[in-house]
Amino acid sequence: MYYSDPAELVSAAPVTFALIAINIIVFLLETVAGGSTDIRVARRFGAMTVRDIRRGQWWRLMTSMFVHFGFVHLACNMMSLLYLGVVIEMAFGTRIMTGSLFLIVTYLVSGLLGNLLTWAVQESSGQYDVVSAGASGAICGLLGVYVAMLFVPSLRAYLNVGAIVTNVFLCIAPGLGNRGINLSAHVGGLIGGFLIGTGYFWLLFSA
After folding, report:
1. Which distant-in-sequence residues (6+ apart) come within 8 Å of 136 by Cβ?
2. Average pLDDT over all residues of the chain
3. Which of the four pLDDT bands, split at 50, 70 and 90, describes residue 171?
4. Catalytic position from the list 68, 73, 100, 186
5. Does the annotation mark 154 as catalytic?
6. How does residue 177 score in pLDDT terms, banded at 50, 70 and 90?
7. Given a cut of 60, is residue 130 above it in pLDDT?
8. Is the four-CA dihedral 161, 163, 166, 171 of positive or negative sign?
């Protein structure tokens, strides 16, 4: 399904565009506050470290998914969010929950699972002060849902595998060879999203 009118597209996928707007606003605030690549600024806006979590700052497990390091980091994540989010929001009717509600639940839960796995890995390896942030875990959760949709014949009409492979490559390519990429968040989010999608589809089509 395609929309030539941007207003219609926003209306069809309101949560996707709301999430993009929130991420951009936080990024602009980071920039004004001293620069999004400044670790101190990132932590001030909600980025997480193991040491912060140990101090009881559990809220960073959620806020860190809205903080980004630099324009490329933000742009790549928002490109993926735009494509994946629009598809997922438009794919479901109003049975059990709307596509928009399903999207926000999946985004937040997948992002949280990605950050929990990041915390566990960094805790076990003694990386107490490594700063972690970004929407990658949440977005990989949406990708996990997209993969789960491949196994549901009635949802395949919404999928364009070539487009998503290209989109994901463009967003992953800048980080290839960069040891600073948080693979734990990606893996945790992807698995979480796939399991959420699979469970939801079972409920949706068995109801």
Report:
1. 77, 114, 182, 185, 186, 189
2. 86
3. low
4. 186
5. no
6. very low
7. yes
8. negative
136 has catalytic annotation = yes
Which tokens is 121 given? 């890995």
Q: Which of 36, 64, 136, 184 is catalytic?
A: 136
Residues 145, 194: contact at Cβ < 8 Å? yes
What pTM was estimated for this model as a whole? 0.88
Q: How many CB atoms lie within 10 A of CB 201?
A: 18
Band of pLDDT at residue 112, cut at 50, 70 and 90: very high
| Spatial distance between the Cα atoms of 59 and 87, rounded to a whole number of angstroms | 29
Q: What is the pLDDT of residue 182?
A: 74
Topology of 6-206 in CATH?
Rhomboid-like fold (1.20.1540)
Alpha-carbon distances, residue 123 vs 45, 106, 146, 182 (angstroms)? 22, 25, 31, 14
